[in-house]
Automatic annotation (TrEMBL):
Regions recorded as binding DNA: 26-45
Entry-linked Pfam families: TetR_C_1 (PF02909), TetR_N (PF00440)
Domain named HTH tetR-type: residues: 3-63
Keyword Transcription regulation carried by entry: yes
GO MF annotations, alphabetized: DNA-binding transcription factor activity; transcription cis-regulatory region binding
Residue ranges of coiled coil: none
Region forming the signal peptide: none
Protein name: TetR family transcriptional regulator
Length: 189
């Protein structure tokens, strides 16, 4: 095993999460996986909640390190790409949406401010920019939560026989388009 440090503990915890799922992640299991005594984990994380928060932050790294919007970017395309990036990142980790839900992005606040400022500079009213980012984020977490909870191996959403089936990606894209269209409408008023 690599030298134990905070990052190594989080990496092993994410590996454990991918193997057993969020409900089965425990400090006892993690300590066994790391071949250490359970109390030694408290050196890095005082509580399981602290560990889960660190895991959520680490799991978001692909999205949190994506390029920020540039002034010349089309805000509509950027909004779509940013939300899709968030979805892809949540899907990279087993139970990624559940792990992320309820966390506060304290380490990402400057990036969020930059994104909102970009939308405002592009002509989106400030309150609408804030609410659009919040709505898109919560919509994405909810969509991924449903997708990751799905037990249907086909990946299609089960609907009554008289309604056409739809896959998770199509449902996500349709909802995202509705959010964007609503935002575009508000900027044109």
């Amino acid at each position: 095993m690599t030298k134990m440090n905070r990052e190594a503990v989080v990496a092993e915890a994410l590996g454990l999460l991918d193997e057993v799922g969020l409900d089965a992640v425990s400090t006892r299991r993690l300590a066994k996986r790391l071949n250490v005594e359970q109390p030694s984990l408290y050196w890095y994380f005082r509580t399981k909640k602290d560990l889960l928060a660190a895991m959520a932050q680490a799991a978001m790294t692909p999205h949190a390190t994506a390029p920020l919007p540039a002034p010349e970017d089309d805000w509509r395309e950027w909004f779509l790409d940013n939300t899709r990036s968030f979805r892809r990142t949540l899907l990279m980790c087993r139970d990624g949406a559940r792990l992320h839900a309820g966390t506060t992005p304290t380490s990402d606040l400057d990036r969020i401010r930059h994104k909102i400022h970009f939308l405002v500079a592009s002509g989106v009213p400030e309150r609408d920019a804030q609410m659009a980012m919040l709505a898109a984020g919560r919509f994405t977490v909810g969509s991924v939560l449903e997708e990751q909870a799905e037990t249907n191996p086909s990946g299609r959403i089960d609907l009554p026989a008289d309604m056409p089936g739809i896959d998770h990606t199509s449902a996500f894209e349709a909802g995202l388009a509705l959010i964007l269209n609503g935002l575009v409408h508000r900027t044109e008023v």
